[in-house]
Amino acid sequence: MFTLCDPSPDARTEQIRDEIKVFPAPVIDRATVQKIFRLRKRQALRLMTDFGGHAAGGARVVDRSRLLQQLSELARRPRVWRSRQELRLRLRPSISVSHQSFSP
What is the number of structural domains in the chain? Predict the structure, then answer.
């Protein structure tokens, strides 16, 4: 998943914001998120959920202006993003065990 811990995060984040700013539609679909953030399908869907994405018809979309606002906030406070990622990584083994215990 995209994180601000990646090499040269400021330059990459700025490039992503620039691409989103010029995007012509008010919402961005999953395929576009994949392309802009350089993610795989599942990663794009997860990122969209993290940024308030929602279903529209048969597609998943995220509001362009909200995404820009949240990216700007993350650029100002990157530790918030890192702490969310670290929490997710710490919880992943527990969640996997829980899912296995409830599987038929």
Answer: 1
Residue 3 in domain? no
Is 0.70 topped by the overall pTM? no
CA angle at 16 for the pair 13 and 22, rounded to the nearest 5°:
140
Task: Write down the pLDDT at residue 33.
Answer: 93
How many residues appear in the chain?
Answer: 104
Burial 18-52 (b: 16+ CB within 10 A, else e): eebeeeeeebbbbebbbebbebeeeebbbbbebbe
Beta strands (DSSP E) in the chain are: 27-29, 54-56, 59-63
What span, in angstroms and rounded, lies between the C-alpha atoms of 63 and 27? 4
